[in-house]
Amino acid sequence: MTILAIDFETANERRDSACAVGLAWIAEGGVVRRESRLIRPPELRFAPGNIRVHGIVPADVRGQPDFPAVMAEFLPDLTRGLILAHNAPFDLGVLRAGLSAYGLPVPAFSYLCTLQIARQVFPDPAGCGLGKVAARLGIRFAHHDAGEDAYACAEIALAAMRRTGAADVAGLTRVLPLQVTTLPPGPALPRYRPAGAGSLAARALSAARRDAAPEAERLRFAVRGSTGNRYEVALEERPLGLYLRCSCPAGRNRRRCRHVDAMVDGDVTDLISRNFADVERLRQLIAGAPAGHRIEPERVRRVQAA
After folding, report:
1. In what residue span(s) does the SWIM-type domain sit (predicted)?
2. What pTM did the predictor assign?
């Protein structure tokens, strides 16, 4: 039987927003293979809280494969094997939601939760979160990196196997009050489309063909500076095209600033106005204009004073 641990990181609160996956295979009492991949989620809406956890920003995944392309390599092992995950309902939920989001059938999956295993084998008043259990067991890893988390999950299962005397990881169900959970297969669902996604490109193209001022006036972003000051990044229509102007000292002195770069890259880490959809609209305006009116990111990055 194939036994492998899995961990997902997500872009926002949606289960179908996976932006990274890590896997670790177990055989002969040890971890024999490790893989990790970045994933482009269906929409590039990254919640600041999620970014603070895993450090992945939209610019990191914009050119990466989508969920089906990444997971195609691993689905055979996942469907015929035993999956381990720490807080497994979350990671299995992401796996199933990710397939459903692209209209793909959801196969049956069988899993053990290493959080439940840790609570039985390594109980502690401090809790049994992945980082806490790994620290108590001396497992060295970089928390919230999907590949590292999958490795730590696998090592916790192996430690539990050794502590209980189970013959293998699957054998933990014979020495603990624990059962393998099998999720039934699910039907293919209509492919998920982010709200308004179907018209984003059309709006961008039409905005570039006509006077873009009304569109530009709506794209304003409040951002947090390195010292905590609040600045405004605004998209403006100029005779030569669209320009981003920032109210920070660098922007006022006609120098390129990191706040403009962040908006162009889709990095919402310091976005305090929380208009995340507008960040993607900005990207579409930059990338979707027709050839005669195309605005390259390098030009948009040039901050022009009013």
Report:
1. 231-268
2. 0.72
